[in-house]
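note to self: the first set is below, dont mix up w the second
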Amino acid sequence: MKKIIFAALAILPAIASAQTGKFTIQGKLGHISAPAKAYLQYRKDGNIAVDSAVLQDGKFTFTGDAGTVPMSGYLLLNKKGDGMRKSRDYHSVFIEPGTITVTSPDTLKSAVITGTKTNKESAELQVALKPVNDAYTALEEKQKNATDAQKEALAKQEKAIEKQEAAINKKFIKEHPGSYLSLSALQSFAYSADYTDLAPLYEGLSPEIKASTGGKEFGELLPKLKAVALGATAPEFTETDTAGKAVALSSFRGKYLLVDFWASWCGPCRMENPNVVKAYNKYKNKNFTILGVSLDRPNAKAAWLGAIHKDGLTWTQVSDLQFWNSKAAALYGVRAIPQNFLIDPNGKIIGKNLTGGDLENKLEELFGKI
């Protein structure tokens, strides 16, 4: 399942000693000409930067100040030239000092982008990830018309693909300790991996990467991830429920508890909710319960309550309605949802990110088949 992650046009971490510089993007897409336009979109200094160029015999050029931070962005192609928003052909690109070359006989999607260190590394990583991306595409097609009986088998296939993806990213991180992309991959890997996997990978990064803004931020995140590692005692927190009553995590001590981070606006969370409801109804009489923690926005209580009612979430629900600034989410190092933590009666974390059939399988392991 795809998760909602707190990122959009993510900025790769800046190396502390990096210098400003100019970038040039030189493109050649076959013999496409006007009215076709290429568009460049990226985030710079907290703002979205956008530029456009008319194609002449397939050629286009963008230039600008790369600043101190290698930035991720997108190149988009619209053959009618009537706006970036109507573009359906695009490719990611990393903005950094130097000349970046973009070549393809026809589409941006199939373009090869090289010329600078990060773009070369990105191309290498994408080649390694191609079997994974192809597997995801094939799986999504199967899921569209899958019967209930087939969904369980497809869920197992998805887990296998996710495991393969994690292994590829882990290998890349180890082999490229001085790459911006390694830190970016590590940040993504943090969702599915436990602290014991993440800490050695972080320590293996170069001093320059660890000294970068993103490197320092990840270093500060690690103690939080250690605090919610498997076997750790779940950190205490208190938040208010739908009636405004304070609910403490420790009030559930003595029960198996699933702390479920979600939000009404999160599509993947809402898709996962039927699985959570099924598990709850099956095992709620076996010393098992759930505490829902919502990352809904301020002034969105009505949406939160509406989703609870519509999805049939009959267990305790709490939220401070602070979106990604949720205190409980910050305490647990949550940077993507849906995310959950299974806690035993003694307050120890015994499971994480149990989605799909994994949650029911874990509960069956604990309580026996029902």
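second set (the one i keep forgetting abt)
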Amino acid sequence: MARGSQEKTEKATPRKIAEARRKGQVAKSADLNGAVGLLAMVLLLYAIEDHHINSLYRYLTEFFQHFTEYNSEQADFLHVMIDVASYFFGLMAPFFILAVVVGLAVNLTQTGFIFAPGVIKPKADRINPIEGFKRIFSVRSLFELAKSLLKVIIIGGVTYSLVAGSISDLMMIFYVTPHMILQQFSGFTLRVFLWGGLAYLALALIDFLYQRYEYQKNLRMSKQELKDELKQTEGDPLLKSKRREMQRQITLNRIIQEVPRATVIITNPTHLAVAVRYQEAENDAPQVVAKGADNLALRIREIAKENKIPVVEQKELARLLYTQVEVGQEIPYEFYQAVAEILALVYRKKNGYL
């Protein structure tokens, strides 16, 4: 087989993408979840900063005022630790909840809802040492290593520059009230997390674009794979051609059988032909017994001429009957009047009144 047909140069088909999703293979960046979550928590802290500082100040004040009253017994110490843990958990709970909600939202935005139980199934290649070494020294692993080093350098650099530029403000904590210490510490923390989060977001967006590129590259297909998939989804072209020929023959046989029994042929005028049969003793309503377009319409008119079946040109009615009524069905009520007028005309001609 030619080498060109094996090179994966073609975009993945929707079927290939759907199969990959069922296997849990999607393009997503875990860093994007982390960056957006971090910035969301920074914004939340900006919104409730004053409330949290005042609450923390009151709690710490009361804690240290009563600190000497606590007994050294183990039970009392445990009670104090539980109380402190409960308070700080309540203080941080909104941030934990926000992180979870934002993480789910960003994940769904990237990949949509996906259910892939096959991902957790054990696979032999996961414990194969040779495959393990290949993964360790792959291009993807090198990219992840470079990305991790870049995160450390950039985020560390941003943090260092903020600390270096705020040394004088941080030194003032020795000369201000405890409440102001909390305010300065909170403001400094917010600046660090805000600029660090923005740097992290920039890296995450680059990572997201790379993950999409890598995902699309891994799903590329060769020309032979496209041909094989086409055969699987739509069938072999030769078999499809044979099926179409069989369907045409079946339709033609029905036309040959039913048109001679028709009462009238309604045309549009050359592209469509609909054979309608109505016998008062047999039918409750006129019935479409055959229909065709183009060559089949021509064949219907030829058979009608051979069997002296009246042909009436009624463009709009022929189009409506062809598109809305299947062969073997009675015509809908809304077409009764138009078809009745044509049948009346046919009967008058047949009886010599016209």
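remember for set 2: The chain has two domains: 26-218, 239-350.
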